[in-house]
Structure formats: C-alpha cells, structure tokens
Structure prediction request, 271 residues.
Amino acid sequence: MKIAAVYALVEETTFKAAVRAPLLEVLDLMHRLGFDGIEINIPDPFKVDVTKLSKNLKNYGLELSAISTGLSYVNYGLSLTHPSKEVRGKSIEFFIKYSEIASTIEGSNKVVIGLARGKSEGRPLNDVIQLLKEGIRVILEKTENNGTIFLLEPINRYETDIINTIDEALPLIKEYKRLKLLYDTYHMTIEDTSPYDAILKADGHIGYVHVAENNRLAPGMGMLDWERILYRLLRVGYNDYVSIEAIPKPSYEEMLRTGIWTLRSLLPKVI
Ligand SMILES: [Mn+2]
Prediction:
C-alpha cells in the first residue's frame, strides 16, 4: 500500500480536514516522513500553474495520488447538482480541467467527486441523482482521452444528503467503467454499521481510500482499529493509496507524523 495526505492548495477555506501551509514546507516534510504521494484539493483548476506544481512534486519524490475537488464547492459554490444549469455547466468544466491536470502530473490519474456533487436543497432526491448522473456522464465522455478514474465518495449526512452510504453509491458506480468508489473511514464510521463491514460491502469497487479517525483526526489519534481496516482492504483486493484526510491538530506536522507512523507500523504485518 502507498500512503498520501490531503493538501489544500489555498490560503483561505472553511474546509478543515486538509493540510494548509506553504507547499514547499509541506512537500519537504512529507518527503522526509516517507510519504509516497500527495492528494491536492484544488479550488480553481484554471488558476493552477501545472508545470510548476508537477516540477515541485517531482523534486520531492511525491506522486499526485489524486485531485480532490470539494473546495470548488466550499469556496465557489459549484456543484454537479446545482439548481442552475449554468452553475452545473461550470462545475462540469472544472471537472474536465481537473482531469486534464490529473492526467498531466505523474501519479494515479484520479479525481474525487466529493462535496462538489452538492446537496438536494429540498428537491426530490431522485431528480437530484438524475442531475448527478447526467453530470458524470458528460464528464466521463469528455475526458475519455485522459483516461482519468473518477471517485464517487459516500459522505456523511451532516455534510450532504446525496449518497451517504456505500449501498447508495454502488448502483451508480456499476453503471460507468471509469467511476470507482472512494471509501472514507471517517464517513463510514458515521454512516455504516461499522467502517470494517463497509469495506466488505464495497468489495471489488474501491478505487481510492481516505483515512481519518472517528473524530477526523489522524490515524492513531482516535478509536479505529487500523490493522483491521488495512487487513480488510487487502482482503477485498485493494492495495493502492490510503490518503490521510484529517484535521491538522495539534499541528499539521504532528498530524502527518502520527498518521504515517500508525499506518506504516502496521503495513509489514498486513502485506
Ligand atoms: Mn473524504
């Protein structure tokens, strides 16, 4: 298994579960701690200097494990199910651009569909799911040449009401070849019978993993059984990135250090 952590490419945001600090400092620390990759949450993909970012990651020996996209929703209100067709179109354009960046920078060529799917905002759920499906269909069609894998992430009920569980995500995932499941230990601790059983439900469909404790702190700072989680991931055939998406407390340095130490110390036992 490879280990990454989520970095927010922005100075100001209300989104808490990501590292926010000068990029080069973070890359340097992640390199020294032995991370394999970095997941970058990009608010506006049209404002990124891709050549420079790519070069920076290469200099520190880190792959781009995935691009996450929630900040396009948190910071600009863009979503694939927004009531306005114009805003949905803009969100689709963003996803196409995210895909282009993911396929350009060395790494997994994966893009997360998380908070940027939006919320129902009182509309019938079926109608909203139709909008989401339509958005995903267009994105997949227009990014075929990039070959990007898109990751649909069930998110807990306090953050969205569209697709909270693995059972709700699977029918959509089975419809599209380049759409996989993003399994997040924190969300599944809230939504499923247990985060451990959730892995078995997702059998064969997991394309990426976010890890954080029940309190959304780094692995090792809460009550989850990480050996059981890693073992179960391997049992269903998942042996790719686990990406630490945690609140950077007591500091981002401590979060990264404790997170990777907790996971790394178990990996020789489970691989
Ligand atoms: Mn997540």
Remarks:
- The chain has a mean pLDDT of 96.
- Residues 2-270 form a domain with the TIM Barrel fold (CATH 3.20.20.150).
- The pocket of manganese (II) ion is lined by residues 114, 153, 184, 210, 245 (CB under 6 Å).
- The chain has ten helices and eight strands.
